[in-house]
Every structure is written in C-alpha cells, then in structure tokens.
Amino acid sequence: MSDFTMTIGGQGVAAQETFDVVNPATGEVHAQAPDCTEKQLDQAMESAAAAYRDWRRDEAARRAALRAAADVLFAKAADIAPVLTAEQGKPLQDATMEVYGAGVWLKYYADLEVPAEVIQDDDNALVEVVRKPMGVVAAITPWNFPLVLGSWKIAPALLAGNTMVLKPSPYTPRSTLALAEALRDTLPPGVLNVVSGGDRLGAWMTSHPVPRKISFTGSVATGKKVAAAAAPDLKRVTLELGGNDPAILLDDADPAQVADGLFAAAFQNNGQVCSAIKRVYAPQHRYDEVVEALAARARAAKVGDGMTEGVQYGPINNRPQFERVSELVADAIAGGARAAAGGKPIDGPGFFFEPTILADVSDGSRIVDEEQFGPALPVVPYTDLDEALARANGTHFGLSGSVWGADADRAAEVAAQLDCGTAWVNTHLAIAPHQPFGGSKWSGIGVENGPWGYYGFTELQVIHRSKR
Ligand code: NAD
User: Fold this and answer.
1) Over the stretch 92-138, which tens digit does the pLDDT of each residue have?
2) Structure confidence at residue 1 (pLDDT)
3) 294 and 204 in one domain?
4) Which of ligand 1's atoms lies nearest the C-alpha of 203?
5) pTM for the structure as a whole
6) 3-state helix/strand/coil string of the chain
7) How many domains does the chain have?
8) Is Chaperone one of the keywords (predicted)?
9) Whether residue 230 sits in one domain with residue 267
10) Is 363 in the same domain as 260?
C-alpha cells in the first residue's frame, strides 16, 4: 500500500498496483507509490480538460488560488520536506528550502503582471497582441529537484489559464504526490492532477491526444524521445535538458578567493544539478593551487544520511546514477587522472560517493566530455584562453557556464563568448524566478521562469479592430 495517493479530479486515487521507492541513504525500499494505469491517466487528462473550461476564464481567481497555494506550501514545508529527503537523499534543511522554493515560485507568478501589448492604435486600427492558454499541459519532472522544478511548470502554466497533469520521476514520486495532496483544497478539482508511475507513464502522456503542450525536464536522451512523441500531434514542447557546464578561471582569478563559489556550485545537491559546474578550466600557472583549494573543500565536506543534523551532502539519488558516477571516475583514474580528493564509493549501505576532485585530466576523458551529474569534478589545465573557450563550447551541451576573474568587465567579455543559455560572471547557479532559464544546443528548447517562462505556456493571439 502507498500512503500517498494520486490526485485526479481533486480526489485521492489509489492504484491497483504500486512500485517500490528506495531510500538512497540505505539502498533499501522504504515505501510504495501508486503505479498509474492507462485508464487512470485518461481520467486525469479528462478531468484537466473539464477543469480548463472554467479555470481559463477568471484571472483574478487564478492569482488568488496561486497565492493561497504558496501559503499552503510555506505552512506545510516541515511535513513535506522529510518525504523528499527519504526518497531523494538531500539533507533535510535543503529539502525544506526546496519546499519553500516551490512556494516562492507560485507566489512570484501569482503576482506577475503581463500586460497585453498594443502594437497599433491609429485612425486605421487598434491592434493588440494577447496571450491565450493552450489547454491541458503534460508536465514531466526529474528526480533531482522534484518540487521546485514542478513549481517552475505549475505556476506559470496555471497562471496562464492552463490545467495540468504532472508526473514526477519514479525515483522521487512521493514528495510531488504529497504536494498535490496539500493543495487539494486550494486549487479547484482537475486543475492540477498528479499521477505517478515509471517511464512508460511518461511515454503515455506525451502521446496522449488531450495535452496541447508538453513541459519536460530531464535528460537529453529522453528529451529527444519527448520531441519525437510530440511531433505527430504538433504539441508544443519546452525541453529543459542536461548540461555540462564549464567554469573558466582567468589568469587574474585568485584560487583562494573563488574556490568557495566554485565548490558550492559544483557540489550543490551532491552535484545533481543540471546547471552545476561540471568541469573547471584553470590556467596552467595556477593549476596546482586551484586543484588543492577545491580538494581541501571536498575533504572537509560532511557526507551522510540527509536526516542527520550537520550533513551537507547526501547520497547519490539512485543505483544507476551511483554506478554511472563510479564508472566515470574509475575510467578517468584508469586513464591517468589523479584523485586529489575522494575517488571512490564510500563503504557501507546506501549510494554514497566521496566528494571527488580529479586532476591531470583533459577533454577527451569521459568525465570531462559527458554529464557526470554527481559529486565528482574534473579540473582541466589550459595555457591559451581561446583554446579553453573552444573546448568549453565544443560539446552538444549549452545550458550554462561561468567565467571567474578579478577584472569583472574582462570576465564578462569572455562569458559573452560562451555558447549557452546563462553565462555567469564570478558566480554560478544564481537562479531566480524572474530570470529566464534554459539551454541552447542539446540542453533544451524554450525557457522557464520570468515572463518568458509564462509565454511558453501561451499562444499569441492578435486582436485587430478596424476603425474604418
Ligand atoms: P530522465 O530523462 O531519465 O527522466 C526524466 C523524467 O522523464 C522522469 O519523470 C521519467 O520517468 C520520464 N521519462 C522517461 N522516459 C520517458 C519517455 N520515453 N517519455 C516521457 N517521459 C519519460 O532524467 P533524470 O535522470 O530523471 O534526470 C536527470 C537529468 O535531468 C540530467 O540530465 C539533468 O541535467 C536533467 N535536468 C535538467 C534540468 C534543466 O532545467 N535543464 C533540470 C534538472 C535536471
């Protein structure tokens, strides 16, 4: 039995079948989640379509409901956070911040003003451009930040007047089920439906005839399948996909000064962030200092069960990901890389891995070229900045990147040459509700957040009134 139910048409719905949810801190099954059937998915889609008829009409009511929903999340953060920690692994404090973050996003959109644009008003015509909702949105999220990434979709989509069927990752279903349960009395029935299940449920959603829009966050490989599934029905898609973010240190960057920022942005959520720093390019003449400054921080990091106080980094979320990080680090070391810190799994139960800094490694090594998505950071030396930029840009990824240096103007000039959605200067992972976030190249299509994220859940309509 699952103690959380799916939310369909405002009701709690159990499934005939359930699937196992593993606590990554123990490696053991700790709970069950409902495995949505095709028939139940149809019901969720139908209830979203039915709710759309009224929900789209009253913008003031939508704003009020989003504001109330934010308050519910703020009030229930202490209840939902342990559910997230138990299935995701992140420290309880981070899980609590994530629930708050979801509330912050709901509140931001509740208050976002998006005025209609008048593009002509003269003797001939009054021409306005307005934004209309699309209908039912199918939303699919990954396991690293299930709640906050869910809120990036829920908040703008609902504000625009759409309704939604949302599916979290099978590794982290329960926190999103809990979120929907918490909001059941706040949002009208059918406006937000949450179903849980495996990858096949995602495929059923993207090929389902009801949704007009798919909003997907996950890996590049799955993103391509989603785009292909959307094509026959010309469903609109937003794809937020993987990244392999470079951080380039300029020759005037002081390793002692930038190391805290670099380390935090590489290891936040145990490196399981789409736009975490995934490779550092350091000038050859300061290379050893950079490696050592990062390695010292990795050695000092407190890793453990997220429910234990004082723990900074939890386990890797799931066994396949744990094996992938282990394999990429072992491959780098076999190829001549040096583990300046860490370098191997931590003995004992759970998917724990030592915070790892890899030195004497370069492009061409899998850990530099691929997205590791875990607590292992390669540091690559360079002598020529143009060459470092070419290497930083020389991948299919283009999510974000950063440039670090004492001369911020010069660093900004270099940052502008990165081919990616966000280029940070002397920081990384500075993400906020008002700032559009998305990737170029294989890192995605479209953006989330700010008015631009809202536009992604709308279609343009021109209202042209003749004055003749
Ligand atoms: P994933 O692609 O394996 O799964 C993501 C979601 O897609 C899950 O809910 C999964 O069940 C579902 N899914 C799987 N197969 C599907 C299919 N055929 N059709 C529809 N849905 C399907 O990704 P993951 O391992 O959960 O997440 C990690 C990845 O997500 C990393 O690559 C990371 O960089 C990326 N990510 C990107 C962003 C961003 O905003 N750009 C944010 C977070 C994570």
Assistant:
1) 999 999 999 999 999 999 999 998 899 999 999 999 999 999 999 99
2) 61
3) no
4) 19
5) 0.98
6) CCCCCEEECCEEECCCCEEEEEECCCCEEEEEEECCCHHHHHHHHHHHHHHHHHHCCCHHHHHHHHHHHHHHHHHHHHHHHHHHHHHHCCCHHHHHHHHHHHHHHHHHHHHCCCCCEEEEECCCEEEEEEEEECCEEEEECCCCCHHHHHHHHHHHHHHHCCEEEEECCCCCCHHHHHHHHHHCCCCCCCCEEECCCCHHHHHHHHCCCCCCEEEEECCHHHHHHHHHHHHHHCCEEEEECCCCEEEEECCCCCHHHHHHHHHHHHHHHHHCCCCCEEEEEEEHHHHHHHHHHHHHHHHHCCECCCCCCCCCECCCCCHHHHHHHHHHHHHHHHCCCEEEECCCECCCCCCCECCEEEECCCECEHHHHCCCCCCEEEEEEECCHHHHHHHHHCCCCCCEEEEECCCHHHHHHHHCCCCCCEEEECCCCCCCCCCCECCCHHHEECCECHHHHHHCCEEEEEEEEECC
7) 2
8) no
9) no
10) yes
